[in-house]
Amino acid sequence: MESASMFWGLASFAILLFVIGFYYILATVNLLRILIGMEILTKGATLLLVSAGFLTGMMNVIQPIIITMIVCEVVIIAVAAGVVIASYQSNGTIDVTALRNLKG
Fold it and tell me: Most buried of the four, 15, 30, 40, 60, by CB within 10 Å?
């Protein structure tokens, strides 16, 4: 019974992280804040996977999935950070609305 209450505590925190990250992505026009929102969103998903693995007792199955997810997340964030830097160098700002003026 204690593991179920721990799962719901972790799951509610993971859902909160997921909602905060989703809000950051939708509500801002700053590219760095969007990257931070993506990080928070994926951390919430990772925490939910960890708590589900703990509840089911299948941590040995969940761990490779989480490691793969973290590696993919790092690659995506690195590429997105490169896009943010290139956007700043070409436009002088990290505002999303400035990207609408690009041609090509």
Answer: 40
Q: How would DSSP label each residue in 36-84? A: HHHHHHHHHHHHHHHHHHHHHT-HHHHHHHHHHHHHHHHHHHHHHHHHH
Structure tokens at 86: 């290139």
CATH number at residue 51: 1.10.287.3510
Q: pTM for the full model?
A: 0.84
Tell me what the pLDDT averaged over the chain comes to: 90
Summarised one tens digit per residue, pLDDT across range 2-20 is 777 888 888 899 999 999 9
- Cα–Cα separations (whole angstroms), residue 81 to 7, 11, 22, 64, 72: 33, 29, 18, 26, 14
Kindly report, residue by residue over 10-60, the tens digit of the pLDDT. Answer: 889 999 999 999 999 999 999 999 999 999 999 999 999 999 898 888 999
